């Protein structure tokens, strides 16, 4: 009688498939660790951007023997090979293979020509943290570091030394209020008048194109223009009055002894980080974080806030979802419930699956050629002839960007909806029909509600991809700096023809196109973290809706 061995060999283990299970689990674990590590790195660097760093005053004596005084933040610490310094002509003691280096953010770019200064630690003779060291955040030219020595009003010194610092906070608050009033008048009030004047110009041009001969209509337009011009003159006069009031300035002594006079209207905030308590730094952190979320960008997007980017990203994703979801669901319902299953429907499904793998830049080129130049150009010729040759919809804008991304994400919605419809048992449909319901009633009241979680899954995937896309948007609507938001108080309120800002493009622009990339690097981390949080928030909202629908229609599915 033949017996079988009870030993479990390596070959048996291999044939059982266990190695592949462990290999897959290991690969997933490695990917999760890499993902968590990336999120931790982005989060750490993004959140650290808002914390007020201490300011150091160092005496630096390089190999030439000439002492240099530097004042600024320790931006980074690194270790460099000694051979690299020798190639740069810097003397390094024999036997030293690596040298520790600090990178100081010294600011005052208008005075020194650069924001950063590398310093070899071995050449440092003195390191101090003076409490009187001041950081000025300016509207242009970046930060300024120094000591406030005097405060001036209309060119006359009104305070010096510590007394100047004590009065500076109140003076700066007043200067910022006046500057905010000026910006409000220029951007909102004068902007609204310019918009109305442009509408009147187009109305006048439209009457000319129609061959209108009634002079009363032209006179009515001129009267409205005169009224708007009077409002404009009044606002310009108010700007002159604000400029006359906002003439305070401070004198800042730099680390090299040079003194510079800085108008307070160019300063956003000033603080002494070395004498700030932990609670004061925490409040400063919250203030900076709120400014980042609510303010407009400045300094070529390398400083300030990202509110226009957040707004543009959210509005574009919402419009894209409104366009892509219904069309994708209708397509999936037709293919699954109504179309005759054959070669044509199989071909369409293959085409839809292949469209999901087309590079996004191809969609951008298609959107630019078809939507912008062809469709938008025809819309301008038919509905906006008075604005030509200046395009209205014949140029990249929010509408075309949303439609392009809807086209890009629609295959995901179609496939997810079809899979959801396929999982519904046939008995449910037949039971509904047997009870006297029509096919349309069965579809609307039974099938679609049960398949709604799958539809939401498609929407979640579409939102996640659309929020992070950049390549097609560069061609069909996104810009580095938009002059105005797509939504404002001027009719029709939502301006779909306007260009807009996007968080993904903002990250690309600041990280690779900024004139001062090193200074803007922390902002890149902060913007990337914000984009991740925004995508997660949009997805979690959709997931919550999906789970609620799944729970609601669980009884029907069962």
Keywords:
558 residues; alpha+beta; SH3 type barrels; MetI-like fold; six-stranded antiparallel β-sheet; five-stranded antiparallel β-sheet; 13 strands
What's this, in brief?
With 558 residues, this protein is an alpha+beta fold. It has helices spanning 10-15, 18-48, 82-87, 109-112, 161-210, 215-245, 278-294, 307-338, 343-355, 360-383, 398-422, 426-434, 439-468, 473-476, 503-513, 517-552, 554-557; strands spanning 55-60, 68-81, 98-105, 116-120, 124-128, 134-138, 143-153, 156-160, 248-253, 259-263, 267-271, 297-298, 303-304.
Written overview of the protein:
The chain is an alpha+beta fold. It has 3 domains: 75 residues, SH3 type barrels, CATH 2.30.30; 129 residues; 250 residues, Orthogonal Bundle (MetI-like fold), CATH 1.10.3720. The chain has 17 helices and 13 strands. The strands form 3 sheets. Strands 6, 7, 8, 9, 10 and 11 form a 6-stranded antiparallel sheet that branches. Strand 12 and strand 13 form a beta hairpin. Helix 2 crosses helix 16, helix 5 packs antiparallel against helix 6 and helix 8 runs antiparallel to helix 13. The longest helix has 50 residues. The radius of gyration is 32 Å and the shape is flat. The two termini are 53 Å apart. The model has no long low-confidence stretch (mean pLDDT 87).
